[in-house]
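Possible regression after last week's pipeline update?

I re-ran a chain I had predicted before the update to compare outputs. Posting the input and the new output here so someone can diff against the archived version. Not blocking, just want to make sure nothing changed silently.
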Amino acid sequence: MRALRKSKSVEILLRLLDRPRYVRELVSEVGGSAQTVEMRIQELLKEGLVEEEVWEAWPFRKMLKLTERGKNIAGLLKVEQDFFTVAKKIANEDATRRGGWLLTVLHAVGGVVRGATKLQKLLFLLKRELGIEAPYNFTPYMFGPHSPDVLDDAIDLETVGYIKIEKEVLDSTLAGDCIIERKYELTPEGAKAAGELYKKLPADEKKALRSLGRFNEMTLTELLKYVYTKYPKESRGL
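New output (post-update):
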């Protein structure tokens, strides 16, 4: 059914699934040019998905409705559309919940974490060592437990202006190459939002978050050694 691949076809079918409509109604509701909508209607008529009912008296208007075949296909399209809408909503809610934990971790350790690897490990230790069910799932990786959602959420928080991500030189090699890492820092807006989230947490979670400070003060080498030694099954070295 080539017609379904063209713009406005799916929108027309979904509108007609709701109830029969006049051509003028469809043009208004679907949007786009009247010519495009009318072309799609003609193609859907040829495909046997839509049929016309013509008034035999004045004003001789045409009512469009779905055929049985059209109803079946439109029903499947509606189920698919609803599924992706729900999936997207769930994904957004999960990202928002995770982002809240990332903000509160930054707040608890003074607003700054130097290095993506260190940020990963702080959230891992919050969950694994301190028993807080932060919604991140970690798997073994090159530098120990890793969750791609951590860095994705950090980028999202930067986009909305809650954190600032900057590159900074940590060290240089004997060959003169620079070792560059990212610094994650709360913005004033992010600090305010993180503070509000932190206030709402129960006392045991606040205590756990504060205890992350000692891990944040470690060098990356010290932190990795700690994680590798205590959680060998969840870490995988280079």
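Follow-up from reviewer: compared with the archived run. Confidence is low (pLDDT under 50) at residues 86-91, 172-177. Marking as no regression found.
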